[in-house]
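[Q] Does anyone have a clean structure-token version of this?
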Amino acid sequence: MVQLPVFCYAIIADNRSIAAMKITEALLAEHLVFHNLFDHIEATAPRLKTLAEVKSLAALMESMLKSHSDTEDELFIGPLEHCFEQIGQRDTFIQEHEEIDGNLRKVQLTKQLRRARALLLGAVAYSRKHFDKEERIVFPMAERVLNSKTLTALGQTWMEQRTRKSV
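[A] Here you go.
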């Protein structure tokens, strides 16, 4: 039998139910996908020869990040808002999402390949920094502040949202 990482879904033998997953595990799993996307962008962007190629990668990253940040804002940041306010980070996290989104939108508006590439790679670097902060500060804080039942219920809501989007 193959051992799956903790963030993977454990499918029950009858394929009718999926084992519970915490929202922190779901978001961390999404982060792992993003880190692979970021690696790909960093490796390929310097070799891209057309503005359309850079804009295409930026559009893909923007679309994926929008879904992820919407989920974080809706399901995760809300229950922890009081904690963010206590540590003075509430506005910072919102601004970081907006900054990343803004750079990716600027890629679509630019007419210069070199500028588009720089904006895209800047958005990747900023995203990595933001994800690192979430992984080091936000996810552990959520594990301490929210009980396991709440984290699992939020994980279930995440799963239902993802299932609806993929159908």
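[Q] Thanks! Anything notable?
[A] The chain has a mean pLDDT of 84.
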